[in-house]
Write a structure and sequence with these properties.
355 residues, alpha/beta, Aspartate Aminotransferase, domain 2, Aspartate Aminotransferase, domain 1, seven-stranded mixed sheet, five-stranded mixed sheet, 37% helix, 16% strand, globular, transferase
């Protein structure tokens, strides 16, 4: 063992690999099996799979807890929401991923929970709402508005009130933000995004440093059957190995493009939280121009996903589920690792087409 604390980039490369034995594989093999021989950690594929372990080990090491993988980010979120007591209050951001908000609104309509939507960057407002809640759900940065929450202050106040805090860390990743160290109880990921990084995986995860919470989430995964595939977890573990270099490059691109977009007279407003790979901006001309722009770029792909090596963008309000408070012309831009000058020329070309 090394005599010093390893950096996150080294952990990303090395954690979760098989023991070094002569003739053994460097990477964890893919175990395609629905049944396993009794006597080990699991004997049925819904309860466990050796291929999951590699991904869960490296993600847990990066976040500072124990990770559980799920069939999707939405499945991970659903399992966590299932732990909220009946009729209890959940506090959530007004701006958040619409799949999460859809789940919360449906549970509220069925009378399962009371839902309070807040501006997550208004710390005192969130703290006040948390006093009577069972769970505070945080996105930071939020999707797609990129507001930032004070996770430490909210978690500290929530802990005093006996309120659990869960943080969707998809946009930041554990390389830019570690919510468990800031006092949160749970971290949730859509591992389809930056963690896997190649737009070829649907996968989710929950991380906690509480053994009791881990056991409860693991039970929900098994009962719901919201388990990942072996191939998906293998691909995600492989993707994490390069997370640090992908994130560094895409983040550098995002910072430069945000600077240039902010200086453009054709951009109404450009938002960037100072880290990460996501920019949100509005263009002069509103929703119609924004929609046409995203459809006509050559390098940047018109797509709803994010966090891959390729740049993607879309007008978020094209989705009917998107909160009405999100501007009609807002474009969410997931910056990839292409050459930044090529990306800027592509943006200039589509802007010029609608000048």
């Amino acid at each position: 063992m090394p005599g010093h604390e390893l950096s996150p980039s080294t952990i990303a490369v090395g954690a979760g690999r098989p023991n070094r034995v002569p003739g053994g594989p460097l990477n964890a093999p893919i175990t395609l099996a629905s049944a396993l021989v009794p006597g080990g950690a699991s004997e049925y594929g819904r309860a466990g799979n050796p291929t999951w372990d590699s991904f869960e080990t490296v993600l847990g090491a990066l976040e500072g807890g124990r990770a559980l993988s799920f069939a999707s980010g939405t499945a991970a979120t659903s399992a966590l929401f299932d732990l909220v007591p009946s009729k209890a209050t959940v506090v959530a951001p007004r701006h958040a991923y619409y799949g999460t908000l859809t789940q919360l609104h449906e549970r509220a309509r069925r009378g399962q929970i009371e839902l309070k939507l807040v501006d997550i960057d208004n710390t005192q407002l969130v703290i006040n709402a948390a006093e009577s809640a069972a769970l505070v759900w945080i996105e930071s940065p939020t999707n797609p508005s990129l507001e930032i929450a004070d996770i430490a202050a909210i978690s500290q106040a929530a802990s005093r009130a006996g309120t659990a805090v869960a943080v969707d860390n998809t946009f930041a990743t554990p390389l830019r933000q570690k919510p468990l160290e800031l006092g949160a109880d749970f971290v949730v990921h859509s591992a389809s995004k930056l963690l896997s990084g190649h737009s070829d995986v649907i996968l989710g995860a929950v991380v906690t440093n509480s053994d009791r919470a881990y056991a409860a989430i693991e039970k929900r995964r098994s009962v719901l059957g919201a388990i990942p595939g072996a191939m998906e977890t293998w691909l995600a573990a492989r993707g994490i190995r390069t997370l640090h270099v992908r994130l560094d490059r895409a983040e550098a691109n995002a910072k430069e493009l945000h600077k240039r977009l902010s200086a453009s007279s054709r951009i109404v407003y450009s938002r960037y939280p100072g880290f990460g790979t996501i920019i949100a901006f509005e263009v002069a001309g509103g929703a119609q121009v924004a929609q046409k722009m995203t459809e006509q770029s050559d390098i940047i792909t018109y797509a709803t996903s994010l966090g891959g090596v390729e740049s993607t963008w879309e007008r978020r309000r094209r989705h009917p589920q998107e909160p009405e408070s999100v501007p009609e012309g807002l474009i969410r831009f997931s910056v990839g690792i292409e050459d930044v000058e090529d990306l800027w020329i592509d943006i200039q070309n589509v802007l010029a087409a609608f000048a």
